[in-house]
Amino acid sequence: MLLSKISDSQELHFVQATDAEELFALTEANRAYLRIWLPWLDWTTTVADTKHFIQSCQQQFTDNKGFVAVIRYHGELVGVIGYNEIDWHNQVGYIGYWLAADRQGQGIITNACRSIINYGFFKLNLNRIVIACAAQNQRSQAIPKRLGFDHEGTAREAEWLYNHFVDHEIYALLKRNWREELVLSKQGR
């Protein structure tokens, strides 16, 4: 199901059971790279694991607690983005994303984030959106910086990655500060 048509070449679709094999293949192709930053790779070793992940995403959507979308670029599944959690009481959404290593540097995640930020503020009526990135993941941190998020600090030892803790850099954006046209003008677009 289409969430957003970003451009002629890029779309976001709510994750579906039919995405399982393609998503697992993308995970396999990027396993070593993703394992540096994401904690779930050791528990995703078969297509069945990916199917279970998709079922949990669909339940999360049904329960109105967040959603996951696949990123399609020229029709090919190249990554995942979504609201990992939505705190409705406080109107806060927490964005998470990952992209195939060979697709980075093309603006794909920035455009996908821009789309779900708009969705969060104007469809879900969120007031605040948060992105947490591993302190060493400069590429991931570039996204919220580029989109006008404020750096609010470091959450020390925020996540266990296989054999060590990593700090998270916390970025947040308020609805009243989201002016897409200002973000684009700051980028010189």
The main sheet orders its strands as 1-2-3-4-5-6-8-7
Report the β-strand fraction as a percent range. 25-35%
Radius of gyration: 16 Å
Summarize the biggest pleated sheet.
Answer: 8 strands, mixed
Q: How much helical structure, as a percent, in the residues?
A: 25-40%
How far apart the termini lie comes to: 30 Å
**Morphology:** globular
Q: Roughly what is the average pLDDT, rounded to an integer?
A: 93
- Secondary-structure class: alpha+beta
Spans of at least 5 consecutive residues whose pLDDT stays below 50 are 181-189
The total count of strands amounts to: 8
| SSE run | EEHHHEEEHEHEEH
The number of helices is 6
Which terms summarize this structure?
eight-stranded mixed beta sheet, 6 helices, 189 residues, alpha+beta, 33% helix, disordered C terminus, globular
What would you note in describing this structure?
α1 (20-29) crosses α3. With 189 residues, this protein is α+β, with helices and mostly antiparallel strands. The chain has helices at 20-29, 31-35, 47-62, 108-122, 138-146, 180-186, and strands at residues 2-5, 10-14, 67-73, 76-87, 92-99, 128-134, 150-161, 164-174.
